[in-house]
Design a protein that fits this description.
Mean pLDDT: 85
Distance between the termini: 60 Å
Radius of gyration: 29 Å
Largest sheet: 6 strands, antiparallel
Pfam family, one: GDYXXLXY
Strand content: 5-15%
Keywords: Membrane, Transmembrane, Transmembrane helix
Shape: globular
Number of strands: 12
Low-confidence stretches: none
Protein name: DUF2157 domain-containing protein
């Protein structure tokens, strides 16, 4: 019962935060700018105030006040995003997440609470991500970005070892740092002049990690194995695209052979050491099987395409089944060889049967392997393949649309889940594939009524699964259910079938209901839940950090309102498009006539100030005079009516330079993009005496 109460509190808090995010992103026009700022401030006060209040009232459930304190920092981030929406500053900018990460970092250092550690890590890496991959059509990857990614990857690696040594206690941060280090170091190994060095560095690091954690920690070993497997396969495709030839594919076959031979010796060695964990061996065999299978399949199809061998799909299917699947299933070859050849045959067979539309034959092949193979991991994999082949077969024979096909698959998988009760491993395969099929129903283009029905069904099933499996202690099931639950929340943000404001009201209602139910169950059960309060003895310092957030929001509102009141008005030509921001809702992305400067000597990126003058049509034009990195391109004295506008050169080529001014995004009410798209011709911008611009409105 205690677990039920905690989960209900968590869901209630998440719903309230989600409601606020959706409401702000909807850009509802019935409120003025200052009224929206007041709403954002009220949200912050609500979470921080509730945290302090419940810390005094619920002495045995400090976990709730801790969650609310973290939610307060999240609400501050939503308020920062709202300010960007009100004053048309793009939410996907790294500056938003940089500002947001500062109080999260201060709370982390001051309270040493795991929730703040995780939030800070996520925000800092979002800052880095949007700096390296700016959400602008003019951003590009450079060698400098590669070295930045490498440095941050090493920093994550050092953080990982710091946590392992016990200097910081946070398991979520441990895994976040490990995953981030792998992702960033993998990024450096592609498409740059030092990729060979970065590849060798990562491979050596990966080898050391696999060797170190094979016997010790299965979870870390699994993560390293997954990244290693993915990296090798992606690298293979990169090399194949660059050096495609018959020699390359023969070499790929040789590499697969050497990999299998080496893995056989290693498996025999591990078998003699009882300290090796069963799951570690299983993951190792799975990684080798995946890599070798991909290598062999790529080699077979690559050689066939190069030599233009006229082999029918039926012949290819028979060869794969007779010479690969059946022998590997019936014999007791070493595990890496056995399963690599088996999976190679299955992949070739499924590909061939899919092309020639005789996928019903694959059912017999899969059933043959499934019946003879007793290992849980293999049966789990082949069950998923069976479901995939079922979808292919139904699509070929019944010519079902995406909606009908997914609906049939959900029903079939649901029946299979009930029939496979107590079948360890296989039932989880049905559970997983069923959730994936049901989630896919939400993502396809359907009518509003169908969206609501499938959303409700998915929400009820996911929520029920979290509660039931949590109570039963089935960690794999309830964690998977919780992941799908959060996936639903994210998916609904980008779902255009119904309005954000309507979803916001729904989540607000759900949040209130869940919190009331949690409070009722808590009082009725009289639980004494022991948890440490991060407010204990630190209220003054925490209040100081909260005040810093309030001061920053106040300063931003004051400075922007002052600029809007006192700034000089300019009118610029533009061309819009219509996407959706990560946090702030719909916006039009603007490309001005001044976004590309012609006849310049700029050959680098950096700050630029251009001189604007009003023409006879009342539009402000670029005069050809600019100051780049503090130096004017020509002698200049300001004339009456001149307006100086600051920007940043993002790229340059020949005698042209691409510039952004921080006024490239105009946020609009949800669903009004088509009303703006192609109809507006100019933008009204306020420019301060320091050269900073704010986009005020668009004009036809």
């Amino acid at each position: 019962m205690k677990k039920t109460v905690s989960l209900t509190y968590l869901f209630g808090v998440v719903f309230i935060l989600t409601s606020a995010l959706y409401f702000f992103a909807s850009n509802w026009q019935m409120f003025s700018r200052l009224e929206k700022v007041a709403l954002a401030g009220a949200l912050i006060v609500l979470f921080y105030g509730a945290s302090f209040l419940l810390d005094r009232v619920l002495k045995g459930a400090h976990f709730l006040s801790n969650w609310l304190l973290v939610s307060g920092v999240i609400s501050f981030g939503l308020s920062v995003a709202l300010l960007g929406q009100l004053y048309n500053s793009h939410a996907d900018s790294y500056l938003l997440f940089l500002v947001w990460s500062i109080p999260a970092l201060l709370f982390s250092l001051y309270t040493r609470y795991g929730g703040f550690y995780a939030l800070t890590h996520i925000l800092i890496h979002l800052t880095i991500y949007f700096y390296l991959f700016p959400s602008t059509p003019f951003g590009h990857w450079t060698l400098a970005h590669t070295w930045i990614a490498f440095g941050i990857g090493i920093a994550n690696l050092l953080l990982f070892f710091t946590i392992k040594k016990g200097f910081i206690r946070s398991m979520p941060l441990l895994y976040l740092s490990l995953v981030s280090a792998n992702l960033l170091l993998i990024v450096t190994a592609f498409d740059n002049e030092y990729s060979a060095f970065f590849t060798l560095f990562y491979v050596c690091l990966l080898g050391i990690g696999v060797y170190r954690y094979f016997h010790k920690e299965t979870s870390i070993f699994i993560i390293l194995s997954l990244f290693g497997t993915g990296f090798i396969i992606i690298k293979m495709f990169e090399l194949m695209a660059r050096y495609v030839s018959s020699l390359f594919f023969v070499g790929l076959l040789l590499a697969a052979t050497l990999l299998l031979v080496g893995s056989v010796f290693l498996v025999n060695y591990l078998r003699k050491h009882s300290a090796s964990r069963h799951w570690s061996k299983t993951i190792f065999v799975a990684s080798v099987t995946t890599i070798a299978s991909v290598f062999i399949v790529a080699s077979v199809f690559g050689l066939l395409s190069l030599f233009m061998v006229d082999v029918s799909m039926i012949t290819l299917f028979v060869l794969a089944t007779v010479f690969l699947v059946i022998p590997s299933t019936l014999t007791s070859w070493p595990s890496p060889v056995k399963y690599s050849l088996m999976m190679t045959g299955i992949v070739i067979g499924m590909t061939a049967s899919g092309f020639e539309e005789f996928s019903f034959v694959m059912f017999f092949v899969l059933a043959f392997v499934f019946y003879l193979e007793k290992r849980i991991a293999v049966r789990f994999t082949f069950y998923l393949l069976f479901q995939l082949n079922t979808a292919i077969f139904l699509g070929q024979t019944m010519e079902l649309g995406a909606h009908a096909l997914l609906l049939v698959m959900v029903l079939l998988i649901g029946i299979a889940y009930l029939l496979l009760k107590n079948k360890q491993g296989i039932q989880y395969g049905a559970f997983l594939s069923g959730f994936i099929a049901l989630f896919s129903l939400i993502t396809i283009d359907l009518s509003l009524s169908f969206h609501i029905v499938y959303f409700t069904l998915f929400f009820l099933i996911a929520t029920l699964c979290v509660y039931v499996f949590k109570k039963q202690g089935l960690k794999l099931y309830w964690v998977s259910s919780l992941i799908f639950w959060f996936m639903l929340i994210v998916q609904l943000y980008y779902d255009l079938a119904w309005k954000l404001v309507h979803k916001s009201l729904l989540f607000a209602g759900l949040g209130i209901v869940f919190l009331l139910v949690a409070g009722y169950l808590d009082r009725k059960g009289g639980f004494e839940q022991k948890s440490h309060s991060i407010l204990a003895g630190k209220k003054i310092g925490i209040l100081f950090i909260i005040c810093l957030q309030a001061l920053w929001i106040g300063y931003q509102v004051y400075s922007n309102e002052t600029l809007l009141t006192n700034g000089e008005t300019v009118i610029l030509e533009l061309q819009p498009v219509d996407p959706r921001s990560l946090l702030q809702g719909d916006y039009v992305e603007l490309n001005y006539s001044i976004s590309q400067l012609e006849d310049t000597s700029i050959d680098d990126n950096g700050p630029v100030t251009i001189v604007l003058r009003e023409n006879s049509q009342g539009l402000h034009e670029y005069t050809g005079v600019y100051k780049f990195n503090g130096k004017w391109n020509a002698s200049y004295e300001k004339k009456p009516g001149d307006v100086l506008l600051n920007g940043k050169v993002t790229s340059s080529w020949g005698n042209s330079a691409q510039v952004t001014y921080g006024i490239e995004h105009f946020f609009i009410p949800e669903g009004t993009g088509l009303d703006v798209e192609g109809k507006v011709k100019t933008a009204v911008v306020k420019v301060s005496d320091k050269g900073d611009g704010i986009l005020v409105r668009l004009k036809d």
